[in-house]
Every structure is written in C-alpha cells, then in structure tokens.
From TrEMBL:
<dbReference type="InterPro" id="IPR036255">
    <property type="entry name" value="YgfB-like_sf"/>
</dbReference>
<dbReference type="GO" id="GO:0005829">
    <property type="term" value="C:cytosol"/>
</dbReference>
<dbReference type="Pfam" id="PF03695">
    <property type="entry name" value="UPF0149"/>
</dbReference>
<dbReference type="InterPro" id="IPR011978">
    <property type="entry name" value="YgfB-like"/>
</dbReference>
<protein>
    <submittedName>
        <fullName>Uncharacterized protein</fullName>
    </submittedName>
</protein>
<comment type="similarity">
    <text>Belongs to the UPF0149 family.</text>
</comment>
Amino acid sequence: MTATELVGHDDIDALIMRLRLGTEASELHGSLCGYLAGGGSLRGTSVLGALQLDGEATDPSPDDQALLQRLARQCETELADPELGFEPSLPADDRPLTERADAMVDWCRGFLGGFGLAGTAAHAQLSEEAQEILRDLGTVAASSFDFGNEAEDEDALIEVQEFVRVAAMLLHTECTAHDPSASGTLH
C-alpha cells in the first residue's frame, strides 16, 4: 500500500485484528472522525492514545502507526473537504443490508464517543442546529433496525448515511471555526 492510497474499511478491519482492539472498523473510523470533528488535536499523542483505545497486542508496529497516522490525515482532510467528499467508513455496498446498518450504528456510536473525548471549549458554543444534529446522531447510535422491504430499507439506509455524512462535516466546520488551533492538527 502506497502513502497515496486511501485507507479503506478493510484496511481498518485488518489493523483492528492485528492490534486486537476489540472494536469494529466503522466504530474506530467514527471515533477518529468524531474526535477530529469535535476539535480534538493529535499533536503530541497517538491516535490510539487520543481515542483511549488499548489493544491486547503489544505496541503497534511502525507500519501500523504509520497506517493510523495516514488514516487520521485522511479523516481530517475529508472532513474539511470543500467539495464535501467525506464518507463514513462502512462495509462495501455489496455486503448484506443488516451488516451495513449495524456498521452505521457503530460509526455513530464511535463518532459521539470521539466527539466527547475531544472535549474542547467549542462544544459549549455549538449552535442549536449542531446540538440537534448531535441528538439525531445519538438517536441513530441507539437504533436497532427492523427490516421488511429490501428496496425501502436500502433507501432508508442511504438517507441515514447521507445525513450522517453531512452532520459530521457540519460539526467539524462549526467546532474548528470556534477553535482555530484545531485545524491542521497533523503534519
């Protein structure tokens, strides 16, 4: 894998398995995105340290540390993308609907946890819209989906995914606007 390749869901999943983190790939991606969107800084700390994740394995190898740093830079770049290119890391569209829906719930759970870990002063200054978005993300994170009509369920998941995608970018924009030092947290 070259430095220019995007870190995908399967890459994150393999990393989690190697480090025995006890989390899901979507949840880890959500946690990192929530931490960065909430204004968290990775200066002077590792990704796993910032997210308070400990694996059963020993310290990450240099390759795994580099992968985590690349993932963090990728998340930060995508969250701030003026072309709105950010996407939550979820299983591929050819995976079963239930697996993708569960991953969306995991991603939102992780996002909220990471957002809370960021703990910046910007959180106290969130607009009413941003506070409502956080409540809505909490609703998704607490969801359990009932499936009936596959086409309708697929459309509903796409709508939820689009809401979550835009919500993460809006929260990132609002929190980094309140805390200029939060942008450019990685080099």
